[in-house]
Specification:
The chain is mainly alpha-helical. It contains eleven helices and no strands. α5 packs across α6 (about 175-180) and α5 (about 135-165) crosses α7 (about 195-220).
Length: about 325
């Protein structure tokens, strides 16, 4: 399907529609590819560790089921089957499709409002495009705002997905949804941990879009054809990979706290309790970086694929 228009008003409407379509496609495809890493990351983050003789450097090995990406992945496959690496994929696909569609469209609309030159730059033909980057303040605001809107809208799917992955027995979307709302708190449980999630996602998306725009701008400085470089999937992938990995590392502790709160069933157990529990009972500062390696790898790969699929899909839909 190719989108065409005859005036500026139609162009703006078409751009929003195209961004929603391209974002949805990007989210769906990216999620399917990175699903196994997501399962590994969640298992490592939710695993509770114990220490001998109150020594935070001496973990009791018998209480540790998962010890890294390959070991965790092989154990999950051995005990639950290879399909379990895509456990909760239906809710996760709903999460990623919704999140990516809203994220990209919201980001571009906000940047266009804050920096009119960016919108004009986006509407130019590829041959006429100079090397341009909005200010870091603008991209931070745009990325953070996009993260807030997309997180709030898609958060219930994240809650359901996390609980499905944390359940080692067979379950499905409907059963998990009913289990969650039957707990004390009812439907509000679908937004458990959203405060820590927003504390994580606001800076992460701000950093991610800022780094992505910056890396693209830098790479364009060292190319003979800005047009070809901007449309090059390898360049988009590389810029996305770096921006996703760096931004994830900066906010990883909030991700660990968020996952713990999403599966919590204790009344009155909030962010402060979770932080104290992790620090005093599970290894100090190191506990806030549980699942760090698969988390950073997954975030880098997800950002790389997401930006690449989005940019390429948008280009195809606009016939550029």
């Amino acid at each position: 399907m190719i989108i065409t228009s005859n005036n500026n008003g139609d162009d703006n409407k078409n751009n929003v529609f195209v961004e929603l379509m391209a974002g949805s496609f990007s989210g769906a495809l990216t999620r399917f590819i990175v699903a196994p890493l997501d399962v590994v990351k969640i298992r490592l983050q939710l695993q509770r560790t114990q220490f001998s003789n109150n020594n935070k450097n001496n973990i009791l090995k018998e209480n540790v089921n998962y010890r890294g990406i390959l070991q965790t992945m092989s154990r999950v496959i051995r005990e639950e089957g290879i399909k379990s690496l895509w456990k909760g994929n239906f809710s996760a696909e709903l999460l990623w499709v919704t999140y990516a569609a809203i994220q990209f469209s919201t980001y571009n609309e906000i940047i266009g409002i804050l920096d009119p030159e960016y919108r004009r730059h986006q509407q130019r033909s590829d041959k006429d495009k100079p090397n341009y980057k909005p200010s870091s303040v603008v991209t931070m605001i745009g990325g953070a705002s996009a993260g807030i809107v997309s997180t709030i809208v898609s958060y219930p799917f994240d809650i359901i997905r996390t609980n499905i992955v944390n359940n080692h027995s067979k379950t499905n979307f409907t059963q998990t949804f009913k289990t969650i709302i039957r707990r004390n708190g009812g439907y509000s449980n679908l937004f458990s941990g959203i405060n820590s999630s927003l504390l994580q996602i606001v800076p992460q998306m701000g950093f991610q879009f800022t780094f992505y725009e910056t890396f693209k701008f830098i790479s364009n400085k060292y190319t003979t054809s800005i047009n070809n470089n901007n449309n090059n999937p390898l360049n988009q992938f590389t810029c996305g990979l770096l921006s996703g990995a760096i931004s994830k590392f900066l906010v990883l502790p909030f991700d660990v706290i968020k996952k713990r709160l999403q599966v919590n069933e204790k009344i009155g157990y909030g962010m402060r309790s979770c932080i104290g529990d992790l620090y005093f009972n599970e290894g100090g500062i190191k506990a806030f970086f549980k699942g760090g390696t698969p988390g950073i790898v997954k975030a880098g790969l997800a950002a790389a694929l997401s930006f690449t699929f989005f940019e390429q899909s948008k280009r195809i839909l606009l016939n550029k």
